[in-house]
Amino acid sequence: MIDVAHSMGITVLLDVVHSHASKNSEDGLNKFDGTDSCFFHSGPKGTHQLWDSRLFDYANWEVLRFLLSNLRMWIEDYRFDGFRFDGVTSMLYHHHGIGTGFSGDYNEYFGLHVDEDALCYLMLANHMINFLHPECITIAEDVSGMPALCRPVAEGGGGFDYRLAMAIPDKWIQIIKELKDEDWNMGNIVHTLTNRRYEEKYIAYAESHDQALVGDKTLAFRLMDAEMYTNMSVLSPLTPVIDRGIQLHKMIRLITHALGGESYLNFMGNEFGHPEWLDFPRKGNNESYHYARRQFNLTEDHLLRYRFLNTFDRDMNKLEERFGWLASPPAFVSEKHESNKVIAFERAGLIFIFNFHPYQSYVDYRVGIETPGKYQILLDSDAAEYGGHQRLDHSTEYFSEEYPHNYRPNSLMVYIPSRVAIVLQNMDIPK
Q1: Active site residue 33
Q2: In the annotation, is 141 catalytic?
Q3: What torsion do the CA atoms of 240, 243, 249, 255 make, to the nearest 10 degrees?
Q4: Phi/psi of residue 115, nearest 5 degrees
Q5: How far is Cα 273 from Cα 255, in angstroms, rounded to an integer?
Q6: CA distance 25 to 7
Q7: pTM of the model
Protein backbone atom coordinates (compact mmCIF):
# COMPACT_ATOMS: atom_id res chain seq x y z
CA MET A 1 0.00 0.00 0.00
CA ILE A 2 2.77 2.45 0.94
CA ASP A 3 4.69 1.70 -2.26
CA VAL A 4 1.58 2.39 -4.34
CA ALA A 5 0.94 5.63 -2.42
CA HIS A 6 4.54 6.72 -3.01
CA SER A 7 4.20 5.97 -6.72
CA MET A 8 1.29 8.42 -6.77
CA GLY A 9 3.23 11.11 -4.90
CA ILE A 10 1.34 10.57 -1.65
CA THR A 11 3.10 10.95 1.71
CA VAL A 12 2.08 8.31 4.27
CA LEU A 13 2.19 9.02 8.01
CA LEU A 14 1.56 6.52 10.79
CA ASP A 15 -0.54 7.28 13.86
CA VAL A 16 1.93 6.00 16.46
CA VAL A 17 0.83 5.40 20.06
CA HIS A 18 3.75 5.76 22.47
CA SER A 19 1.67 7.49 25.13
CA HIS A 20 0.16 4.32 26.62
CA ALA A 21 -0.31 0.59 25.99
CA SER A 22 -2.95 -2.06 26.44
CA LYS A 23 -3.34 -3.80 29.83
CA ASN A 24 -3.43 -7.12 27.95
CA SER A 25 -1.00 -9.38 29.79
CA GLU A 26 -1.55 -12.45 27.58
CA ASP A 27 0.12 -11.25 24.40
CA GLY A 28 0.97 -7.60 25.19
CA LEU A 29 3.77 -5.84 27.05
CA ASN A 30 1.92 -5.68 30.36
CA LYS A 31 3.57 -7.90 33.00
CA PHE A 32 6.09 -9.02 30.37
CA ASP A 33 8.41 -10.34 33.08
CA GLY A 34 5.66 -11.15 35.59
CA THR A 35 5.84 -7.77 37.33
CA ASP A 36 3.84 -4.62 36.65
CA SER A 37 7.00 -2.51 36.25
CA CYS A 38 8.87 -4.06 33.34
CA PHE A 39 8.03 -1.39 30.77
CA PHE A 40 5.67 0.71 32.87
CA HIS A 41 5.53 2.66 36.09
CA SER A 42 4.57 0.49 39.03
CA GLY A 43 1.37 1.06 40.96
CA PRO A 44 -1.23 3.79 40.29
CA LYS A 45 1.35 5.94 38.46
CA GLY A 46 1.51 3.29 35.76
CA THR A 47 -2.21 3.31 34.93
CA HIS A 48 -4.21 5.94 33.06
CA GLN A 49 -7.41 6.32 35.04
CA LEU A 50 -9.56 7.38 32.06
CA TRP A 51 -8.13 5.14 29.36
CA ASP A 52 -7.66 2.10 31.63
CA SER A 53 -4.26 1.47 30.05
CA ARG A 54 -0.61 1.24 31.10
CA LEU A 55 1.79 4.20 31.11
CA PHE A 56 5.40 3.83 30.02
CA ASP A 57 8.35 4.60 32.28
CA TYR A 58 10.34 6.87 29.96
CA ALA A 59 13.33 6.91 32.30
CA ASN A 60 13.81 3.18 31.76
CA TRP A 61 16.64 2.39 29.34
CA GLU A 62 14.86 -0.61 27.81
CA VAL A 63 11.70 1.41 27.28
CA LEU A 64 13.68 4.00 25.31
CA ARG A 65 15.37 1.27 23.25
CA PHE A 66 12.03 -0.38 22.54
CA LEU A 67 10.16 2.80 21.52
CA LEU A 68 12.99 4.29 19.46
CA SER A 69 13.59 1.03 17.61
CA ASN A 70 9.85 0.87 16.95
CA LEU A 71 10.03 4.21 15.16
CA ARG A 72 13.05 3.13 13.10
CA MET A 73 11.30 -0.09 12.11
CA TRP A 74 8.25 1.72 10.71
CA ILE A 75 10.46 4.08 8.69
CA GLU A 76 13.16 1.70 7.49
CA ASP A 77 11.18 -1.52 7.02
CA TYR A 78 7.79 -0.17 5.95
CA ARG A 79 8.92 3.18 4.46
CA PHE A 80 6.52 5.39 6.39
CA ASP A 81 7.20 9.10 5.85
CA GLY A 82 6.67 10.15 9.45
CA PHE A 83 4.37 9.98 12.43
CA ARG A 84 1.45 11.59 14.17
CA PHE A 85 2.23 11.03 17.85
CA ASP A 86 -0.98 10.16 19.70
CA GLY A 87 -1.79 11.43 23.20
CA VAL A 88 1.14 13.83 23.57
CA THR A 89 -0.71 15.94 26.16
CA SER A 90 -1.06 12.85 28.36
CA MET A 91 2.67 12.21 28.04
CA LEU A 92 3.80 15.73 28.88
CA TYR A 93 2.18 16.06 32.31
CA HIS A 94 1.92 13.89 35.38
CA HIS A 95 -1.77 14.86 35.57
CA HIS A 96 -2.13 13.70 31.91
CA GLY A 97 -4.35 16.70 31.19
CA ILE A 98 -7.20 15.16 33.22
CA GLY A 99 -9.43 17.85 34.69
CA THR A 100 -6.96 20.53 33.65
CA GLY A 101 -7.55 23.60 31.52
CA PHE A 102 -4.83 25.47 29.64
CA SER A 103 -5.02 29.22 29.20
CA GLY A 104 -1.53 29.82 27.83
CA ASP A 105 0.02 30.98 31.10
CA TYR A 106 3.62 29.74 31.30
CA ASN A 107 3.09 28.44 34.83
CA GLU A 108 0.91 25.74 33.29
CA TYR A 109 3.82 24.39 31.25
CA PHE A 110 6.84 24.67 33.51
CA GLY A 111 6.90 23.06 36.94
CA LEU A 112 6.93 19.81 38.82
CA HIS A 113 3.71 18.72 37.08
CA VAL A 114 5.62 18.30 33.79
CA ASP A 115 6.85 14.76 33.09
CA GLU A 116 10.43 15.60 32.16
CA ASP A 117 11.25 11.99 31.28
CA ALA A 118 8.44 11.89 28.72
CA LEU A 119 9.40 15.29 27.33
CA CYS A 120 13.02 14.16 26.96
CA TYR A 121 11.87 10.99 25.21
CA LEU A 122 9.91 13.04 22.67
CA MET A 123 12.92 15.29 22.07
CA LEU A 124 15.12 12.23 21.67
CA ALA A 125 12.68 10.57 19.27
CA ASN A 126 12.44 13.68 17.09
CA HIS A 127 16.20 14.17 17.17
CA MET A 128 16.78 10.57 16.08
CA ILE A 129 14.21 10.78 13.27
CA ASN A 130 15.56 14.11 12.04
CA PHE A 131 19.18 12.88 12.19
CA LEU A 132 18.62 9.55 10.45
CA HIS A 133 15.74 10.54 8.15
CA PRO A 134 15.53 14.33 7.83
CA GLU A 135 12.83 13.98 5.17
CA CYS A 136 10.38 12.54 7.72
CA ILE A 137 7.56 14.57 9.30
CA THR A 138 6.42 14.40 12.93
CA ILE A 139 3.15 15.79 14.28
CA ALA A 140 2.12 16.20 17.91
CA GLU A 141 -1.43 15.60 19.08
CA ASP A 142 -1.25 18.16 21.87
CA VAL A 143 -4.16 20.21 23.12
CA SER A 144 -2.25 22.02 25.88
CA GLY A 145 -0.16 24.37 23.75
CA MET A 146 3.19 23.46 25.32
CA PRO A 147 5.61 26.24 24.27
CA ALA A 148 8.39 25.33 21.81
CA LEU A 149 7.02 21.82 21.24
CA CYS A 150 7.33 22.50 17.51
CA ARG A 151 10.71 24.17 17.57
CA PRO A 152 13.99 22.34 16.81
CA VAL A 153 15.67 20.33 19.58
CA ALA A 154 18.80 22.46 19.01
CA GLU A 155 16.76 25.44 20.25
CA GLY A 156 15.56 23.55 23.30
CA GLY A 157 12.26 22.68 21.65
CA GLY A 158 10.40 19.41 21.38
CA GLY A 159 11.46 18.87 17.77
CA PHE A 160 8.03 18.32 16.19
CA ASP A 161 7.32 19.75 12.75
CA TYR A 162 3.62 20.41 13.40
CA ARG A 163 0.98 20.20 16.09
CA LEU A 164 -2.72 19.62 15.55
CA ALA A 165 -4.94 22.67 16.11
CA MET A 166 -7.41 20.58 18.09
CA ALA A 167 -9.45 23.54 19.36
CA ILE A 168 -10.70 24.44 15.87
CA PRO A 169 -13.03 21.49 15.10
CA ASP A 170 -14.29 21.59 18.69
CA LYS A 171 -15.11 25.29 18.28
CA TRP A 172 -17.10 24.75 15.08
CA ILE A 173 -19.17 21.98 16.64
CA GLN A 174 -19.76 24.05 19.78
CA ILE A 175 -20.94 27.04 17.71
CA ILE A 176 -23.27 24.95 15.54
CA LYS A 177 -24.75 23.06 18.51
CA GLU A 178 -25.20 25.94 20.94
CA LEU A 179 -25.69 29.20 19.03
CA LYS A 180 -28.18 30.67 16.61
CA ASP A 181 -26.60 32.02 13.42
CA GLU A 182 -27.30 35.58 14.58
CA ASP A 183 -25.29 34.94 17.75
CA TRP A 184 -22.07 33.67 16.15
CA ASN A 185 -19.17 35.62 17.63
CA MET A 186 -16.76 36.73 14.88
CA GLY A 187 -14.03 37.70 17.35
CA ASN A 188 -14.20 34.33 19.05
CA ILE A 189 -13.98 32.50 15.70
CA VAL A 190 -10.94 34.56 14.64
CA HIS A 191 -9.28 34.06 18.05
CA THR A 192 -9.68 30.29 17.83
CA LEU A 193 -8.31 30.18 14.29
CA THR A 194 -5.30 32.42 15.02
CA ASN A 195 -4.47 31.43 18.61
CA ARG A 196 -1.16 29.71 17.96
CA ARG A 197 2.43 30.21 19.05
CA TYR A 198 4.60 32.31 16.77
CA GLU A 199 6.76 30.29 14.36
CA GLU A 200 5.29 26.98 15.51
CA LYS A 201 3.40 25.25 12.71
CA TYR A 202 -0.18 24.14 13.26
CA ILE A 203 -2.41 21.79 11.27
CA ALA A 204 -5.90 23.22 10.98
CA TYR A 205 -8.96 21.08 10.36
CA ALA A 206 -12.70 21.75 10.36
CA GLU A 207 -13.83 18.25 11.35
CA SER A 208 -12.06 15.72 13.54
CA HIS A 209 -12.24 11.94 13.29
CA ASP A 210 -13.86 11.80 16.75
CA GLN A 211 -16.87 13.78 15.47
CA ALA A 212 -17.46 11.34 12.62
CA LEU A 213 -17.54 8.23 14.79
CA VAL A 214 -20.70 6.54 16.01
CA GLY A 215 -22.37 8.49 18.80
CA ASP A 216 -21.50 11.84 17.23
CA LYS A 217 -22.23 13.59 13.92
CA THR A 218 -20.15 14.82 11.01
CA LEU A 219 -19.96 18.56 10.40
CA ALA A 220 -22.39 18.28 7.48
CA PHE A 221 -24.80 16.16 9.52
CA ARG A 222 -24.71 18.71 12.34
CA LEU A 223 -25.70 21.39 9.85
CA MET A 224 -28.35 19.51 7.85
CA ASP A 225 -29.23 16.45 9.95
CA ALA A 226 -32.07 14.20 8.72
CA GLU A 227 -32.78 16.34 5.64
CA MET A 228 -29.61 14.94 4.09
CA TYR A 229 -31.54 11.71 3.52
CA THR A 230 -34.42 13.39 1.66
CA ASN A 231 -33.40 16.77 0.22
CA MET A 232 -29.89 16.44 -1.23
CA SER A 233 -31.25 15.72 -4.71
CA VAL A 234 -31.21 18.56 -7.23
CA LEU A 235 -34.65 17.33 -8.31
CA SER A 236 -36.09 18.28 -4.90
CA PRO A 237 -36.61 21.89 -3.76
CA LEU A 238 -33.65 23.59 -2.08
CA THR A 239 -34.90 23.79 1.50
CA PRO A 240 -33.66 26.44 3.97
CA VAL A 241 -31.91 23.75 6.01
CA ILE A 242 -29.98 22.29 3.06
CA ASP A 243 -29.19 25.74 1.66
CA ARG A 244 -27.83 26.92 5.02
CA GLY A 245 -25.84 23.74 5.51
CA ILE A 246 -24.20 23.80 2.06
CA GLN A 247 -23.24 27.49 2.28
CA LEU A 248 -21.85 27.31 5.83
CA HIS A 249 -20.01 24.05 5.15
CA LYS A 250 -18.04 25.75 2.35
CA MET A 251 -17.34 28.87 4.41
CA ILE A 252 -16.19 26.90 7.46
CA ARG A 253 -13.72 24.87 5.40
CA LEU A 254 -12.32 27.91 3.56
CA ILE A 255 -11.78 30.10 6.62
CA THR A 256 -10.22 27.16 8.50
CA HIS A 257 -7.92 26.45 5.54
CA ALA A 258 -6.87 30.06 5.01
CA LEU A 259 -6.64 31.36 8.58
CA GLY A 260 -6.17 28.37 10.86
CA GLY A 261 -2.56 27.27 10.41
CA GLU A 262 0.35 26.23 8.23
CA SER A 263 -1.21 22.99 7.03
CA TYR A 264 -4.73 21.69 6.44
CA LEU A 265 -6.15 18.30 7.35
CA ASN A 266 -9.29 16.82 5.83
CA PHE A 267 -11.00 13.88 7.49
CA MET A 268 -12.13 11.54 4.72
CA GLY A 269 -15.57 12.43 3.47
CA ASN A 270 -15.64 15.97 4.89
CA GLU A 271 -14.58 17.31 1.49
CA PHE A 272 -18.09 16.54 0.17
CA GLY A 273 -20.14 16.63 3.37
CA HIS A 274 -20.41 12.92 4.12
CA PRO A 275 -23.83 12.36 5.70
CA GLU A 276 -23.15 9.51 8.12
CA TRP A 277 -20.86 8.40 10.89
CA LEU A 278 -18.19 5.71 10.99
CA ASP A 279 -18.76 2.56 13.00
CA PHE A 280 -16.65 -0.57 12.93
CA PRO A 281 -17.89 -4.13 13.53
CA ARG A 282 -18.41 -4.74 17.26
CA LYS A 283 -20.78 -6.50 19.64
CA GLY A 284 -22.91 -3.37 20.01
CA ASN A 285 -23.87 -3.39 16.31
CA ASN A 286 -23.93 -7.17 15.78
CA GLU A 287 -20.53 -7.07 14.05
CA SER A 288 -22.03 -5.06 11.19
CA TYR A 289 -19.92 -3.51 8.41
CA HIS A 290 -22.79 -1.26 7.28
CA TYR A 291 -21.25 1.99 8.57
CA ALA A 292 -17.61 0.93 8.15
CA ARG A 293 -17.25 2.83 4.90
CA ARG A 294 -17.20 6.21 3.20
CA GLN A 295 -19.68 6.71 0.37
CA PHE A 296 -17.39 8.34 -2.18
CA ASN A 297 -19.90 7.43 -4.88
CA LEU A 298 -22.11 10.28 -3.67
CA THR A 299 -19.91 12.82 -5.48
CA GLU A 300 -20.30 10.98 -8.79
CA ASP A 301 -24.09 11.24 -8.87
CA HIS A 302 -24.90 14.48 -10.70
CA LEU A 303 -28.41 14.44 -9.28
CA LEU A 304 -27.04 14.92 -5.76
CA ARG A 305 -25.76 18.13 -4.21
CA TYR A 306 -22.68 16.49 -2.68
CA ARG A 307 -20.79 17.21 -5.92
CA PHE A 308 -21.10 20.96 -5.24
CA LEU A 309 -19.26 20.63 -1.95
CA ASN A 310 -16.65 18.36 -3.49
CA THR A 311 -15.99 20.73 -6.42
CA PHE A 312 -15.55 23.64 -4.02
CA ASP A 313 -13.04 21.62 -1.99
CA ARG A 314 -11.08 20.79 -5.15
CA ASP A 315 -10.90 24.41 -6.29
CA MET A 316 -10.06 25.66 -2.80
CA ASN A 317 -7.06 23.33 -2.63
CA LYS A 318 -5.97 24.16 -6.18
CA LEU A 319 -6.03 27.84 -5.27
CA GLU A 320 -3.81 27.18 -2.25
CA GLU A 321 -1.40 25.22 -4.45
CA ARG A 322 -1.19 28.23 -6.73
CA PHE A 323 -0.70 30.93 -4.07
CA GLY A 324 0.72 28.93 -1.15
CA TRP A 325 -1.00 30.67 1.74
CA LEU A 326 -0.21 27.79 4.10
CA ALA A 327 3.50 28.50 3.67
CA SER A 328 2.96 32.26 3.98
CA PRO A 329 3.25 34.35 7.18
CA PRO A 330 0.10 34.50 9.36
CA ALA A 331 -2.81 36.51 7.99
CA PHE A 332 -3.51 40.14 8.85
CA VAL A 333 -7.11 40.28 10.05
CA SER A 334 -8.46 43.73 9.26
CA GLU A 335 -12.07 43.14 10.26
CA LYS A 336 -14.17 40.99 12.56
CA HIS A 337 -17.44 42.90 12.70
CA GLU A 338 -19.89 41.49 15.22
CA SER A 339 -23.16 43.04 14.06
CA ASN A 340 -22.39 42.72 10.34
CA LYS A 341 -20.99 39.16 10.86
CA VAL A 342 -18.13 39.95 8.48
CA ILE A 343 -14.52 38.74 8.70
CA ALA A 344 -11.85 40.07 6.33
CA PHE A 345 -8.15 39.31 6.19
CA GLU A 346 -5.13 39.27 3.87
CA ARG A 347 -2.74 36.38 3.36
CA ALA A 348 -0.35 35.45 0.56
CA GLY A 349 -1.33 38.59 -1.34
CA LEU A 350 -5.01 37.57 -1.45
CA ILE A 351 -8.02 39.18 0.22
CA PHE A 352 -10.47 36.86 1.98
CA ILE A 353 -13.94 38.22 2.83
CA PHE A 354 -16.58 36.22 4.72
CA ASN A 355 -20.15 37.30 5.40
CA PHE A 356 -21.64 34.91 7.96
CA HIS A 357 -24.84 36.92 8.35
CA PRO A 358 -27.85 34.63 7.79
CA TYR A 359 -29.84 37.12 5.69
CA GLN A 360 -28.08 40.50 5.37
CA SER A 361 -26.13 41.24 2.18
CA TYR A 362 -23.96 44.33 1.85
CA VAL A 363 -23.57 46.62 -1.17
CA ASP A 364 -20.44 48.82 -1.39
CA TYR A 365 -18.94 47.24 1.72
CA ARG A 366 -15.57 48.84 2.46
CA VAL A 367 -12.65 46.50 3.16
CA GLY A 368 -9.20 47.69 4.21
CA ILE A 369 -6.22 46.43 2.19
CA GLU A 370 -2.45 46.87 2.18
CA THR A 371 -1.58 46.86 -1.52
CA PRO A 372 -3.35 49.18 -4.00
CA GLY A 373 -4.45 47.91 -7.39
CA LYS A 374 -7.21 46.36 -9.44
CA TYR A 375 -8.78 43.27 -7.86
CA GLN A 376 -10.94 40.45 -9.21
CA ILE A 377 -12.70 37.42 -7.75
CA LEU A 378 -10.70 34.17 -7.78
CA LEU A 379 -13.00 32.02 -5.66
CA ASP A 380 -16.67 32.59 -4.90
CA SER A 381 -18.58 30.20 -2.66
CA ASP A 382 -21.82 31.52 -4.19
CA ALA A 383 -20.94 30.26 -7.69
CA ALA A 384 -23.39 27.90 -9.38
CA GLU A 385 -20.88 25.05 -9.62
CA TYR A 386 -20.61 25.12 -5.81
CA GLY A 387 -24.36 25.05 -5.17
CA GLY A 388 -24.54 28.83 -4.69
CA HIS A 389 -27.03 31.46 -5.85
CA GLN A 390 -24.84 33.26 -8.44
CA ARG A 391 -25.26 36.70 -6.92
CA LEU A 392 -21.78 37.93 -7.94
CA ASP A 393 -20.51 38.95 -11.38
CA HIS A 394 -17.01 37.51 -11.72
CA SER A 395 -16.08 40.01 -14.43
CA THR A 396 -16.40 42.87 -11.94
CA GLU A 397 -13.19 44.81 -11.32
CA TYR A 398 -12.64 46.26 -7.86
CA PHE A 399 -10.35 49.32 -7.81
CA SER A 400 -8.65 50.33 -4.59
CA GLU A 401 -8.78 53.83 -3.15
CA GLU A 402 -6.15 55.63 -1.15
CA TYR A 403 -8.62 55.70 1.71
CA PRO A 404 -7.36 54.23 5.02
CA HIS A 405 -9.72 51.76 6.67
CA ASN A 406 -9.30 49.37 9.59
CA TYR A 407 -5.60 50.21 10.03
CA ARG A 408 -4.83 49.54 6.36
CA PRO A 409 -3.56 52.35 4.08
CA ASN A 410 -5.96 51.53 1.23
CA SER A 411 -9.44 50.09 0.80
CA LEU A 412 -11.96 48.94 -1.78
CA MET A 413 -15.72 48.50 -2.00
CA VAL A 414 -17.33 45.11 -2.63
CA TYR A 415 -20.74 43.51 -2.81
CA ILE A 416 -20.75 40.64 -0.32
CA PRO A 417 -23.99 38.61 -0.16
CA SER A 418 -25.17 36.77 2.94
CA ARG A 419 -23.48 33.44 3.77
CA VAL A 420 -20.84 33.96 1.09
CA ALA A 421 -17.05 33.88 1.07
CA ILE A 422 -14.96 35.43 -1.70
CA VAL A 423 -11.24 35.53 -2.44
CA LEU A 424 -9.83 38.49 -4.38
CA GLN A 425 -6.54 38.78 -6.25
CA ASN A 426 -4.62 41.93 -7.13
CA MET A 427 -4.51 41.72 -10.94
CA ASP A 428 -1.68 44.27 -11.07
CA ILE A 429 0.57 41.67 -9.43
CA PRO A 430 0.57 38.62 -11.76
CA LYS A 431 0.72 35.19 -10.16
Answers
A1: no
A2: yes
A3: -100
A4: -85, 95
A5: 16
A6: 40
A7: 0.94
